[in-house]
Amino acid sequence: MKLSARNLLPGTVVEIVSGAVTSHVRIDVGGSIVTASITNESVEELGLTVGQKAYAVIKASDVMVGLDD
User: Fold this and answer.
1) Among candidates 63, 67, 45, 66, which has minimal Cα distance to 7?
2) What are the strands, taking DSSP E only, across 19-52?
3) Which interval of the chain is the signal sequence (predicted)?
4) Helix, strand, coil % (nearest 5) of the chain?
5) Over the stretch 27-69, which tens digit does the pLDDT of each residue have?
6) What is residue 50's DSSP assignment?
């Protein structure tokens, strides 16, 4: 696998919740959960299953800043 993204977080798929068009895939990355929203078709093409090793690949073009009121 070659990607331009530099943020590759290895983990384990802990949950897949499928909707009408997209699925939410939850990946445990060292005790933190990262959730990705991908198409159901992508879940099928990748053959994703709970317990499978996978990468959370993060490609961000913006970083936002927030403050508590």
Assistant:
1) 63
2) 22-29, 32-39
3) none
4) 10, 50, 40
5) 999 999 999 999 999 999 999 999 999 999 988 777 778 999 8
6) T
